[in-house]
């Protein structure tokens, strides 16, 4: 089938068939296009046809593809022409199943090579080319030696290509672009970027030179540099070098210079220019004009001035320094070093600095500050009425002036180059003295003021009186020039001092029975004390007796003794208490106090007297006589083994120990009461009764009383037996007692009694009423015939057997209530 017939058939079918195939242009060149389409079920092949849009009946090419192809190329296109592309899906009979179309242009015509390619800098090309009709933009393709391809889209000529690598040769071609795609690349041209700029840095090592340095630039064979003075329009110096540094000398001090440079490659091409950098030379060395002392807000300082260089560029900072670690900074022509002290030697230098750095230091200037005030002022009274004022030597001093002012207002001064001055002084006056030192910087500041007072006169009318056993009161008349009085009392072993401003003093804590030498010494704060005053003698009162000891000679007499500690004294011993006062006197160290009653407390002390007066009484000792014994004591037996002892009150007694003693044992109790219940008493025993009366302090008195005999013992083994003829027999064990016994049988209806003679151990009770319960008691009788009341009771029941007694049954025992 011919091409026109096929295209007509496809055109007719395209009007009837469903537009199910989706067609798109993947890419296009000036002579071909690559199409993509969707797959159609049942298709055995796909036919692609291209026809100019302005001549749809004249297709320019077609291509057939298999059933599994969804992308294909159609050739034989002309540049920059709008085409209609048709894709038909055919079955096995070559019948059309579906078709799809798309309108798209072919790419523009291949361009001519780039006209020019030049380096704008080390990373940028500027290229020019001929424009193409129908092109909407252009693609410049670059390839480096590593075959890396990069494409830049530009819109017109000339065009800049940026972000390149320095000193690299590139291959460049160009393509024109329209809506259909881009043309084939043009023939390539080659071009190389230039060297990058050197990275300059500069410094000024001196005030007439600049050092420029930079890192090596790869592939550079030489460097060219230019130096300009700021605000000048001409180049000062140009320099070519293969090194990486340049030292420029012979420059103006304190001036600003501008520097730039570039590198040369082996092909002799100039590299990219560096950025301009500026560098200032260091300033000139300042010259010190004047150094002087100044005062500012009470602080001393050294003012330094210099000649300012007004012809330099920019601001200058001046730095003043002293070898005493003082500095100051200024932008003017003067500066003050502060604070400074007296007598200091300063070596002063000045330097200046600008942005380039500091200048050299100026020549040194030595300056001495005002002198320090003289110290260690002292006065020596060389002769009566003549005093010499001295002081320590002060360095860097030309002369001294001493100022003396007396307390009554008189003044005098003394000029000297030595370190002492003599003036008239009299007793009892106060002087204020000061000294100033002078040198070329001025006078010293106010220094030490010495307050000196001559020795005061001795006081008169000294009177000493004893106001207590260890205290003297001393009075005197006021003495001229005295600010303080020192009263001194001394004996062979101690010195007592009293300092006061009043003309009276009390010296306390003096040693007893001692002879003291008393001196009143007048003093003042500055000159001290007058040690030439007359002494007075006074004796203190006798000492207090010590180590008082009490020794009991008998119940009513105590001996009192003490340690002798006075040279000559009489002693009085006093014992005072509620029962009166007892005394005794002696010139020795012991004395007896008699007629002391029992149960009494006395406070005993000793006091000494001598011609100097009455001493202090000794510390008191408590004298306690033994407590009195109770007058009456009674022993009452409560049970067979327990007795109650009671007694009358006893003066001075606090507790009592009562004892009952026998050969068969003893009993004792200790109590604060006036009675005591004592156990462990043996029946039928004679006891000795004694007592210890004890005071609060533990003093004891032994007391004896009439003996006590305990009651006869109660019998044991009491049994009750039934006998004939309605009688009962009571039997017991009496342990061979010489006492008679009484037996009692008591019931609620009948009472029976029988008595047994000594040494008998049974008793028969006739005519007993049976059928009753009896309480049976067997008790011994005292010689007076009284019954012991605390023997145990036993309970028996007696039954009846007809008209006779039946069985006798023991029911238990109970004590007497």
Automatic annotation (TrEMBL):
On whether Lipid biosynthesis is a keyword of this UniProt record, the answer is no
Q: What Pfam families does the entry give?
A: fn3 (PF00041)
Domain Fibronectin type-III: where?
196-284, 373-457, 544-628
Membrane-spanning ranges:
none
List the PROSITE patterns.
FN3
Signal sequence coordinates: 1-18
List keywords of the entry alphabetically: Signal
Q: Which domain of life is it from?
A: Eukaryota
Protein name listed in UniProt: Fibronectin type III domain-containing protein 7-like
Question: Native species of this protein?
Answer: Gymnodraco acuticeps
Starting at the broadest rank, the lineage of the source organism is: Eukaryota, Metazoa, Chordata, Craniata, Vertebrata
Gene that specifies this protein: LOC117542488
């Amino acid at each position: 089938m011919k091409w026109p017939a096929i295209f007509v058939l496809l055109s007719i079918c395209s009007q009837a068939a469903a537009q199910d195939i989706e067609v798109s242009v993947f890419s296009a060149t000036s002579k071909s296009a690559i199409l993509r389409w969707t797959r159609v079920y049942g298709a055995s092949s796909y036919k692609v046809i291209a026809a100019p849009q302005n001549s749809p009946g004249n297709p320019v090419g077609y291509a057939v593809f298999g059933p599994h192809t969804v992308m294909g190329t159609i050739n034989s296109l002309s540049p920059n022409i709008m085409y209609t592309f048709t894709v038909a899906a055919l079955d096995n009979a070559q019948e059309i199943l579906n078709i799809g179309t798309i309108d798209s242009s072919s790419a523009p015509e291949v361009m001519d090579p780039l006209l020019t390619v030049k380096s704008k800098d080390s990373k940028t090309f500027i290229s020019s080319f001929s424009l193409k009709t129908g092109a909407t933009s252009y693609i410049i393709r670059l390839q480096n030696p590593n075959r890396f391809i990069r494409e830049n889209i530009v819109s017109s000529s000339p065009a800049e290509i940026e972000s390149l690598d320095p000193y690299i040769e590139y291959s460049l071609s160009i393509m024109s672009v329209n809506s259909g795609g881009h043309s084939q690349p043009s023939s390539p041209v080659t071009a190389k970027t230039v060297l990058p700029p050197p990275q300059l840095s500069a410094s000024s090592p001196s005030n007439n030179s600049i050092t420029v340095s930079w890192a090596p630039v790869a592939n550079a064979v030489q460097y060219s540099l230019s130096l300009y003075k700021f605000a000048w329009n001409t180049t000062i110096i140009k320099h070519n070098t293969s090194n990486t540094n340049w030292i420029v000398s012979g420059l103006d001090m304190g001036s600003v210079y501008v520097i730039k440079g570039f590198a040369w490659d082996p092909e002799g091409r100039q590299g990219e220019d560096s950025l301009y950098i500026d560098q200032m030379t260091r300033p000139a060395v300042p010259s010190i004009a004047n150094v002087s002392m100044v005062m500012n807000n009470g602080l001393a300082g050294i003012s330094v001035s210099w000649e300012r260089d007004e012809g330099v560029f920019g601001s200058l900072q001046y730095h003043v320094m002293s070898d005493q670690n003082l500095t100051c900074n200024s932008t003017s022509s003067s500066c003050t070093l502060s604070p400074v002290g007296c007598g200091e030697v300063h070596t002063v230098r000045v330097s200046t600095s600008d942005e380039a750095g500091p200048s050299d230091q100026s020549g040194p200037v030595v300056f001495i500050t005002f002198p320090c005030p003289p110290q260690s002022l002292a006065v020596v009274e060389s002769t009566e009425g003549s005093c010499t004022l001295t002081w320590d030597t002060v360095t860097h001093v030309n002369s001294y002036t001493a100022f003396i002012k007396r307390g009554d207002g008189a003044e005098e001064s003394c000029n000297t180059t030595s370190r002492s001055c003599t003036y008239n002084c009299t007793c009892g006056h106060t002087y204020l003295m000061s000294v100033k030192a002078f040198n070329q910087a001025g006078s010293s500041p106010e220094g030490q003021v010495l307050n000196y007072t001559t020795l005061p006169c001795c006081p008169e009318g000294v009177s000493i009186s004893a106001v207590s056993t260890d205290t003297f009161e001393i009075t005197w008349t006021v003495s001229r020039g005295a600010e303080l009085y020192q009263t001194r009392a001394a004996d062979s072993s101690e010195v007592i001092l009293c300092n006061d401003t009043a003309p009276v003093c009390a010296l306390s804590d003096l040693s007893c029975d001692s002879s003291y030498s008393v001196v009143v010494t007048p003093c003042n704060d500055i000159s001290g004390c007058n040690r030439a005053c007359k002494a007075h003698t006074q004796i203190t009162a006798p000492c207090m007796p010590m180590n008082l000891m009490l020794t009991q000679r008998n119940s009513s007499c105590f001996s009192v003794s003490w340690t002798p500690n006075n040279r000559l004294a009489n002693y009085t011993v006093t014992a005072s208490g509620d029962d009166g006062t007892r005394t005794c006197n002696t010139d020795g160290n012991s004395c007896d106090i008699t007629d002391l009653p029992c149960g009494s407390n006395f406070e005993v002390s000793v006091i000494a007297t001598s011609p100097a007066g009455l001493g202090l009484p000794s510390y008191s000792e408590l004298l306690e006589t033994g407590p009195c014994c109770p007058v009456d004591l009674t022993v009452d037996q409560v049970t067979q083994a327990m007795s109650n002892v009671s007694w009358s009150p006893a003066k001075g007694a606090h507790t009592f120990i009562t004892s009952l003693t026998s050969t068969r044992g003893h009993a004792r109790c200790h109590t604060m009461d006036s009675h005591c219940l004592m156990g462990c008493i043996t029946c039928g025993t004679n006891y000795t009764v004694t007592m210890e009366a004890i005071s609060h302090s533990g003093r004891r008195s032994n007391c004896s009383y009439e003996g006590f005999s305990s009651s006869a013992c109660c019998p044991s083994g009491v049994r009750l037996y039934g006998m004939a003829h309605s009688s009962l027999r009571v039997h017991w064990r009496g342990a061979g007692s010489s006492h008679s016994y009484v037996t009692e049988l008591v019931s609620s209806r009948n009472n029976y009694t029988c008595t047994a003679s000594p040494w008998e151990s049974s008793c028969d009770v006739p005519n007993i009423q049976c059928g009753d319960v009896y309480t049976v008691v067997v008790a011994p009788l005292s010689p007076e015939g009284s019954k012991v009341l605390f023997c145990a009771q036993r309970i028996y029941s007696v039954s009846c057997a007809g008209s006779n007694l039946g069985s006798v049954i023991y029911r238990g025992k109970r004590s007497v209530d």
